[in-house]
Every structure is written in C-alpha cells, then in structure tokens.
Amino acid sequence: MNVFWKKGPMFVKELKKEFSDQKLHYNTLSTIVRGLEEKGFIDHEQFGNTHRYFAALSKEEYKKKTLGNVVKKYFDNSYKNVVSLLVEEENISLEELKKLIDEIENTKSDPK
C-alpha cells in the first residue's frame, strides 16, 4: 500500500520493479494486488488487456479499516480487550494509559 500512496497508480509490471530486491514473480505480485483489490484497499483502471492499480483508501482510512478488522477478528470486536492486552504485555504503561484517557476526555469536552 505504501508504494501506491508514494508513487501513485501503477501497472503490476511497474510495481514489480519496486520490489526487485525481493525477486517476486509477476504472477505472485498480481495475485497479491488482486487480493488487495477484493478487500477494497485498491482499485484499477483498465487499459486494453491490462490494469493500472491505485490506492482506493487514504492511509488514514486504511489504518482504521485494518485496525477494525484485527479488533473484530482477534479481540471479539472489543477495543477494551486490545487495551487490556497492551497493558498486560507492558506495551503501554498505566501512566501512558491515564494520559491517553485525559487527552480523550479533554478532546470530548472541548467544543469546536
């Protein structure tokens, strides 16, 4: 996705050049691109028998959608379960969590 956001619309042939160090086969990359399209992350324009692909979502929209999918799939659609795991695994301290709660409360109480 980063390649599409950075470079814009691309044919699979052009995309392959972006990953030349990984030696991905054209068909493999084409399958990945079609999978991203099926998920609604990218779209295409048709030029004869070929397609030029482009990002269908902004980076922010992509983040929200993928995070939502992870929460739904692995955390019973509960953000509370996500935060609990982050605290348990010490990926976020209680102090950081309290600061985040304060920021959220201040944002909600601040009329714009």
Automatic annotation (TrEMBL):
<protein>
    <submittedName>
        <fullName>Predicted transcriptional regulator</fullName>
    </submittedName>
</protein>
<dbReference type="GO" id="GO:0003677">
    <property type="term" value="F:DNA binding"/>
</dbReference>
<comment type="similarity">
    <text>Belongs to the BlaI transcriptional regulatory family.</text>
</comment>
<dbReference type="GO" id="GO:0045892">
    <property type="term" value="P:negative regulation of DNA-templated transcription"/>
</dbReference>
<dbReference type="InterPro" id="IPR005650">
    <property type="entry name" value="BlaI_family"/>
</dbReference>
<dbReference type="InterPro" id="IPR036390">
    <property type="entry name" value="WH_DNA-bd_sf"/>
</dbReference>
<keyword id="KW-0238">DNA-binding</keyword>
<dbReference type="Pfam" id="PF03965">
    <property type="entry name" value="Penicillinase_R"/>
</dbReference>
<dbReference type="InterPro" id="IPR036388">
    <property type="entry name" value="WH-like_DNA-bd_sf"/>
</dbReference>
<keyword id="KW-0804">Transcription</keyword>
<keyword id="KW-0805">Transcription regulation</keyword>
